[in-house]
Amino acid sequence: MDASNTRVLPVSDAAIDEAARLILAGQPVAVPTETVYGLAADATNAEAVARIYAAKGRPSFNPLIVHVPDLDAAEKLAVFSEQARALAKQYWPGPLTLVLPKRESAHLASIVTAGLATVAIRVPRHPAMQALLRATGRPLAAPSANASGSISPTRADHVLKSLGGRIPLVLDAGPTQVGLESTILAADGEQLRLLRLGPIDLGLAFEPGGKVQAPGMLARHYAPAKPLRLDAIDARPGEYLIGFGPVAGDASLSRSGDLLEAAARLFDLLHQADASEAVGIAVAPIPAERLGLAIRDRLGRATHREGE
Ligand code: TXA
Ligand code: MG
């Protein structure tokens, strides 16, 4: 991998325009936020979001935080309780992420929420991220801009060391101010639940070792209600077959065997299969390499029902 393929531009109006152009073309761009540098992509474009996973080499799909410029934009994507709105008014823009019920009408790629009915939303304070949100006019999905398994980047250098050669652009605004990922709070039910400790302390109890210890690993994922069978080369009676490459199926993740396209379509096809008349779901073999690893991990989790 040649790190010189990645440009680093100090933040300026021209740099923001260039970053916005790349994002609207479906590329992920590293951008400073007040917490850590994020790897941002258009949250309405499934393939753009799949490129985040490809660049990070992340071996699983976790739901990502959607960044928007203000509370009005957030209300278009999610349903706020009075309590959630009060928190948003108090802490946004800033390092607080709220997990909320996703609106039916929200225009978000299903890979962003890993197929869940909730969405994690944050209004960042950093002027560069704010400028990028306004220049693109899109909600931006952004995990920390580091390769999977390495630590979160708080300087453009860190991003370059970790993702150099894998992304087209890093916007550089010097070291981040907060340096720690946002506090994550679920506000999708009666009771607020703290999902990740962070810069904002709301005095909520957090149990290390408890159920919500590491949202990245433990976040509930969408699992189909129907039994799921992997590495299938044909459908058994009553099964809906999700194809890939040479295995055609009822619908295909990617006829050409493209893993990026497959990742982008995965959750939509799982929902489609689940909503069909079929009694079970079978999925064609996906190669255990690159994004295929994340797809296989996700499918493996989906075969285990909650409570099992
Ligand atoms: O400060 C931050 O939050 C940074 C900057 C870039 O904004 N972003 C960040 O994103 O830390 P990420 O992808 O590393 O962390 C997102 C966390 C994951 O642990 C994920 O499981 C959780 O948010 N999450 C996202 N959507 C969720 C949902 N619907 N339900 C529960 N957890 C969710
Ligand atoms: Mg991270």
TrEMBL record:
Which Gene Ontology cellular component annotation is one that this UniProt entry carries?
A: cytoplasm
Q: Which residues form the YrdC-like domain?
A: 13-200
Where do the annotations place L-threonine binding? Answer: 35, 67, 122, 142, 182
User: Known catalysed reaction(s)?
Assistant: L-threonine + hydrogencarbonate + ATP = L-threonylcarbamoyladenylate + diphosphate + H2O
**Which residue positions does the secretion signal occupy?**
none
| Protein location | Cytoplasm
Positions bound to ATP: 58, 62, 118, 144, 152, 196, 222
Keyword annotations from UniProtKB, A to Z: ATP-binding, Cytoplasm, Nucleotide-binding, Nucleotidyltransferase, Transferase, tRNA processing
For this protein, the record's SUPFAM superfamilies field holds: YrdC/RibB (SSF55821)
Superkingdom, according to UniProt?
Bacteria
GO terms classed as biological process: regulation of translational fidelity; tRNA processing
Q: Name one GO molecular function term.
A: ATP binding
Q: Return the EC number.
A: 2.7.7.87
Transferase as a keyword?
yes
Recorded hits in Pfam families, A to Z, give: Sua5_C (PF03481), Sua5_yciO_yrdC (PF01300)
- Say which family it is in: Belongs to the SUA5 family.
Entry function = Required for the formation of a threonylcarbamoyl group on adenosine at position 37 (t(6)A37) in tRNAs that read codons beginning with adenine.
Q: This chain belongs to which protein, by name?
A: Threonylcarbamoyl-AMP synthase
Species per Swiss-Prot/TrEMBL record: Sphingomonas horti
